[in-house]
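Quick review question:
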């Protein structure tokens, strides 16, 4: 199993002080297999090409995340925005582009248009596209995501799912039930632990060893799905979390 690190798991002040290049070096030295570059954390001084070159030199797989909705407020896919993101992902050398679903409508969204947009903009066929269950009622609803992905499957549209283990709680869904419903679509996993603090959901570092319910959840997915750390870590303890996650998965597979 590959372990990725999301850039938003690193304290913001360290990213701003040290810059992406130094953080990437630290993540590689900590034993990560890949890194998720977040568009919203990039500064005007960051060069996608430079970041991608460094990642490849350090043997890090690259995934690219953007906060733009796949389906816009007009209930249709925004081709102009998608085209720009694909261009950025290609410049970075990313293997996967992750987006929130957005304003998908069961009847109004034109899935033929979605298919045509992907066909026009993914001509090399090497960039994988996923939606992610986010913290909104529309983009984090199991039935909505299942409906969308069932249609992409029937129409042979190459879109898969990034499964965020913690975001389901924000939309009052049960993660294990979501996994049972959606596991066959999952290409990438965001691992986090979410707890109620003063009436609000807050992301916390996962318990180590992993809780039984977390292990049960992860076992629903294919061994080929990378697992990303998307909970708060420091540059000092990230190596420990990466090694513990890999160890946990090895033990789990041996039991299986």
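Suggested answer, residue by residue:
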């Amino acid at each position: 199993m590959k372990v990725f690190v999301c850039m938003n798991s690193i304290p913001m002040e360290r990213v701003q002080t040290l810059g992406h290049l130094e953080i990437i070096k630290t993540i590689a030295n900590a034993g990560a297999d890949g890194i998720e570059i977040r568009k919203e954390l990039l500064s005007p001084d960051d060069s996608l090409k430079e970041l991608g070159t460094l990642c490849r030199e350090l043997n890090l797989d690259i995934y690219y995340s953007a906060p733009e909705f796949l389906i816009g407020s007009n209930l249709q896919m925004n081709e102009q925005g998608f085209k720009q993101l694909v261009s950025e992902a290609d410049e970075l050398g990313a293997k996967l582009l992750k987006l929130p679903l957005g304003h998908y409508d069961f009847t109004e969204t034109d899935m033929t248009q979605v298919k045509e947009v992907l066909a026009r903009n993914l001509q090399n066929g090497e960039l994988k596209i996923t939606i992610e269950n986010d913290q909104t009622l529309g983009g984090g609803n199991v039935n909505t995501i299942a409906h969308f992905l069932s249609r992409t499957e029937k129409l042979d549209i190459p879109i898969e799912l990034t499964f965020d283990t913690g975001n389901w709680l924000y939309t009052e869904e049960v993660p294990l039930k979501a996994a049972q419903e959606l596991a066959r679509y999952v290409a990438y996993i965001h691992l986090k632990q979410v707890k109620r603090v003063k009436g609000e959901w807050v992301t916390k570092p996962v318990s180590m060893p992993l809780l039984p319910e977390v292990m049960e959840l992860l076992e629903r997915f294919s061994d080929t799905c990378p697992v990303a750390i998307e909970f708060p870590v420091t540059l000092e303890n990230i190596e420990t979390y990466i090694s513990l996650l890999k160890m946990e998965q090895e033990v789990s597979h041996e039991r299986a």
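Why it works: The first helix runs from residue 12 to 18. The chain is about 40% helix and 20% strand.
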